[in-house]
Design brief:
There is one protein chain. It is built from twelve helices and 20 strands. The C terminus is likely disordered. It has about 450 residues and is α/β, with parallel strands linked by helices. Helices cover about 30% and strands about 20% of the residues. A hairpin with a 2-residue loop joins strand 14 and strand 15. The chain is extended and about 95 Å long.
Length: about 450
Amino acid sequence: MTDDRSTLNVRRVRVRVTAGPDRGREAMLEAGTLLVGTHSDNDLVLRDPAVGKYHLELALVAAGVRVRDLGSDGGTQFAGQKLANGVLPSGSEMVIGRTTLQLVGADLQVPQLISDRATFGPMVGQTTAMRELFGIVERLAATDCPLLLEGEEGTGRTLLTKAIHVASRFAASPVTVVDFRLNAMDRPSLVQIAQRSDTFTLLLEHVGDAPTSALREILALYERREEGVLDARIIATALPGLRSSPTDNKLRRELMAHVCAVRLTLPPLRARLDDLVLLVRHFVHEIASVDVTFGDGELVHAMTRDYARNVKDLRAIVAHALDFDTGSRSQFPAAGPARARAALLMPLNARPKPPDPAVAKQRVLDAFTRDWFERLVHRTGDVGLAAREAGMARDEFEQELERLRLQSKRSATPPPKSTERKNSRAPKKSSLAPGTLSSPPSRLPPKSTKPR
């Protein structure tokens, strides 16, 4: 599991006898299950005659230790209550017969190793951040533990999922994708997935967008996997901060304990700019099947660009520069690498052209004018009061609001005359909603505006 400092730990619990005939005896719960009883086949063998031959079964789960009484005569007591099946946190004590068992946390921190490799499946990177990620993934891929891959859009969460799948024991099995950005009718049924008997990898894309109605079904998937009923490797993806996001109900908190137990964060491109040249070369080879090289400083401006979608944006620039955005694979002539290199330098190093001074000035005026009108109407709460404070006629003020698209419910059809007479002395009110500026305002607010 991953602790609050994002450090990877191997979960272990020491099951210790603190009272009874076998006081001091203990056994380590690390993987699988641990059996407690008087029979010699148990992992923790007790001499207490009040304990059954096969009394308890303990197993590590995301939320703690699952305790299951195996139908013993004396039963299992926790906090003065009989416990048949439940999950207890580390530090808990339970009583069986005349024996008291304590669950003592004994996690081991996994040393942080930096991988020597610059690739992991389709993932490419030689910076420290990427090689640290590869070092962790190399270890986790061989396990069955569920994973959460956090990262900004375009950092490669889906690619890393495929790479982990290929490196795991599930490599020969299918991958089932459930994308929670889609409507329920357009994605696979979680209930049907929970009933599958085959071996597979389950990818829960954008699990943070899962609707409340699907939370219980997702929780059932994790629980069935922990119980050994579902033979699946569950990998979830989400934007950063899923673990720290507010949990509005008990069900969501319980689910997050499973989803976020082991989480990895994929670094954004701005945190690994030294990989940019390597990535460009990789994309050129992937798209056009040619190898290109770049001299020192040739892509220096490319490192100062803003890649909103990270590596996805970089690949799109490469594909567009090579005219391969349609997916075709033309054969380059002998000078292909040189052409590819020349085609890439200009779009990658292009810097945004500053706007014309007059245009820049008008943009500032537009933003100020719109903000001034919006704040005035919001503060006064009434169009008539706002118009008087601005020193403008009401009709003129409403026309200005319409031009700024700050008024959404003004109708061209006048209200019935009876309504007008009835409310002739009442100030007219207008329902307002923020909008976008369709054309630049002709002037700033009048100088006669009263100080705010």
